[in-house]
Amino acid sequence: MCSLLALTYKLFSYSLFLWIILSWVQVPYNHPIGQIKGILDQFYNRILGPIRSSIPMVRIGMAGLDLSPIILILAVNFIYPRVMGFIC
């Protein structure tokens, strides 16, 4: 059970990092990387939706900084050790 939870945590963390990197790059959706980006967009937009609705985007001049992925990373890194300590 612990190894499955650790694998899920790593997969979630790596895919979140990949999604953040791919959000900076314009890739056509018919490209294989664009298809991966589309799948990650659907997954993480569902998770980040409630965070985005409660925390507004930070405006820096004409650009905006979305803090919701940072909040998600902090939350997952806060919860994961406690769950592992409880289960394992």
- Give the low-confidence spans: none
Structural domain count: 1
The percentage of residues in β strands lies in 5-15%
The SSE string, one letter per element, is HHEEH
Radius of gyration of CA atoms, rounded to a whole number: 15 Å
- Helix-and-strand structural type: mainly alpha
Report the major sheet: 2 strands, antiparallel
Distance between the termini: 8 Å
Q: Order of strands across the biggest sheet?
A: 1-2
Secondary-structure map:
Layout: H1 2-22, H2 32-54, E1 58-60, E2 63-65, H3 68-87
Antiparallel strand pairs: 1-2
Helix pairs in contact: 1-2, 1-3
Provide the descriptors you would attach to this structure in a database record:
flat, two-stranded antiparallel ribbon, mainly alpha, 2 strands, 73% helix
Summarize the structure.
With 88 residues, this protein is mainly alpha-helical. It is built from 3 helices and 2 strands, in the order H-H-E-E-H.
Description of the molecule:
- The chain is mainly α and 88 residues long.
- It has one domain (2-87).
- It contains three helices and two strands, in the order H-H-E-E-H.
- It has helices spanning 2-22, 32-54, 68-87, and strands spanning 58-60, 63-65.
- The mean pLDDT is 92.
